[in-house]
Amino acid sequence: MKEETNCRLLIGLGNPGIDYENTRHNMGVLALKAFAKKYGFTFQRASHLQSEIAIGKVNSQKVLLLIPAVYMNHSGISVRQCMDYYQIPVADILVVCDDIALPLGSFRFRMQGTAGGHNGLKSIESHIGTKDYARVRIGIGDREHGELADYVLGHFTKDEVENFPTLFDKAVNFLTLWIQGEITYAFTSRTTEKIKNEKKLGE
Predict the structure, then answer these.
(1) How far is CA 108 from CA 8, 52, 84, 171, in A?
(2) pLDDT tens-digit series, residues 41-70
(3) Stated pTM of the model
(4) Superfamily for 7-197?
(5) Measured between alpha carbons, how far is residue 17 from residues 8, 70, 72, 128 in Å?
(6) Catalytic center residues
(7) At 78, which helix (H) or strand (E)?
(8) pLDDT tens digits for 127-147?
């Protein structure tokens, strides 16, 4: 057990393996990697935590990044192991995940709440024993037709990928503000048009 005093834990949800890279369900992982790139964090495999982790500082605040190396439905195992190992309280964690109910590029932040059908959040709730943890959902848009599983496990379109720089700049900015304690209220930031028709994501 290793205590990380006054450490903020950011958790990016997704599925491990090359087959799932850059799929919609891995939006949480993509956002966390964008954050890591911005601040020069380097991920390393932590087999004892069934995760990839990176540790560093942002404006003097110690930050731990966690990407579970287990499938989405079992994310809570890695999260609980990490919280126990580093002795990080629930109040200092933020989970980043995808949401099909939100337009691509929009954000919904809550300090607590239900899983809302998201299996990764369900697993975390089950393993840490509470719904009272912060989470930010990033919209991936809903399918126009076809099966849900095929959509969330599918890759982003070319038009969607073109908006990634703006989307991830927005995500990194939000995560930075949360780390600094400047995000303490629930909010939803929505786009007003389909992402492919926008040059800039709506506020």
Answers:
(1) 20, 25, 27, 11
(2) 999 999 999 999 999 999 999 999 999 999
(3) 0.89
(4) Peptidyl-tRNA hydrolase (3.40.50.1470)
(5) 26, 9, 12, 25
(6) 25
(7) helix 75-86
(8) 999 999 999 999 998 777 778
